[in-house]
Amino acid sequence: xxxxKILSVxxxxxxxxxxxxxxxxxxxxxRIQDVYYQxxxxxxxxxxxxxxxxxxxxxxxxxFISLVFRGVEVDVTASSEGNKTVIKGTINTGPSLIxxxxxxxxxxxxxxxxxxxxxxxxxxxxxxxxxxxxxxx
Length: 137
Known about the structure:
Helix content is 19%, strand content 50%. It has 137 residues and is an alpha+beta fold.
């Protein structure tokens, strides 16, 4: 009986340490420095929102594929600016506001999606700040 208890504890500790090691390695793939969005409007014809995720210490094997913002999933582009990487997603809503966007989805909340070693991950985006809306004639 005592041997079963000891083996049970060893198995549980092994599982816990394996899960924490996996979680730790995921979070070391990059560090989010800043997350913000800026809505824009061109005349009264076109409206949209750009979402920016600034990263530091990005692992070269991480490939960002999309982001979900306010229930809308869009493709992203990545660019390097000095020692940081900026991921940008553009939600073009045409003449309507993002709240009326017809392709809204429910789901995981605001996240950035990426692939690492063949597996897809969602990383939650928190404390997203709003920048001033840009108006272009």
